[in-house]
Design a protein that fits this description.
Elements (H helix, E strand, L loop, with lengths): L5 E5 L5 H17 L5 E7 L12 E8 L2 E7 L10 H23 L11 E8 L4 E6 L4 E5 L16 E9 L2 E9 L8
Parallel strand pairs: 1-2, 7-9
Antiparallel strand pairs: 2-3, 3-4, 5-6, 5-8, 6-7, 8-9
Helix pairs in contact: 1-2
């Protein structure tokens, strides 16, 4: 970290044990992602009167070269945050999840679903159990009756619209899965 870790205790006396725990958790975050610029942790025991004692709040501000992560863990309805170490653990777990999400976005690892190609049934050879699909880019793709996913091969008609997954076969492109779709599913 370029800027040293800052730990602040609010409404509670400083604790060497708590500070040591926070430092070890920050070290784990730095080992996970070594580009953290600064980190500030505030441990607070707000002046709220609860029947079962004080509930701790933990706020973590992490600065990165590409943004900032802020975690504010208010006491939950359950009383587990009466234990300062549980409150700290929960806050750092949330910080690590946000850091993982941030890294994934940076690496563009967010999952995108590529739309399957579509086309129209061009030719059917019912007796042989196969046919060809004309694709939107003008090519022709072979498919077998066993490739049809949600329909009856005998009910297919030339001109029916389909989506398909293609793969390289022995004689060129072929559809491994063919799904019959309605006209309202296609756009453009």
């Amino acid at each position: 970290m370029r800027i040293p870790l800052q730990i602040t205790f609010h409404n509670i006396p400083p604790s060497d044990a708590v500070e040591t725990k926070i430092r070890s958790l920050v070290d784990k975050l730095e080992n996970f992602y070594n580009r953290i610029t600064s980190c500030r942790v505030v441990v607070d025991a707000p002046h709220r009167h609860h029947r079962n004692g004080k509930l701790y709040q933990v706020r973590i501000d992490i600065t990165l070269p590409t943004g900032e992560i802020v975690v504010k863990r208010d006491p939950p309805e359950r009383q587990s945050h009466e234990d300062i170490y549980v409150a700290i653990r929960d806050a750092f777990d949330a910080a690590k999840r946000q850091l993982q999400d941030h890294i994934s976005m940076l690496r563009q690892e967010t999952k995108t679903h590529k739309e399957q190609p579509h086309g129209r049934i061009a030719t059917l050879f019912r007796d042989e159990g196969y046919g060809f699909i004309d694709t939107s880019d003008g090519s022709e793709v072979y498919f077998h009756r066993n490739s049809l996913f949600n329909g009856d091969f005998e009910q297919l008609q030339v001109g029916d619209e389909v989506r398909f997954a293609e793969e390289e076969g022995d004689k060129g492109l072929q559809a491994s899965t063919v799904r019959l779709i309605g006209k309202h599913h296609l756009q453009g």
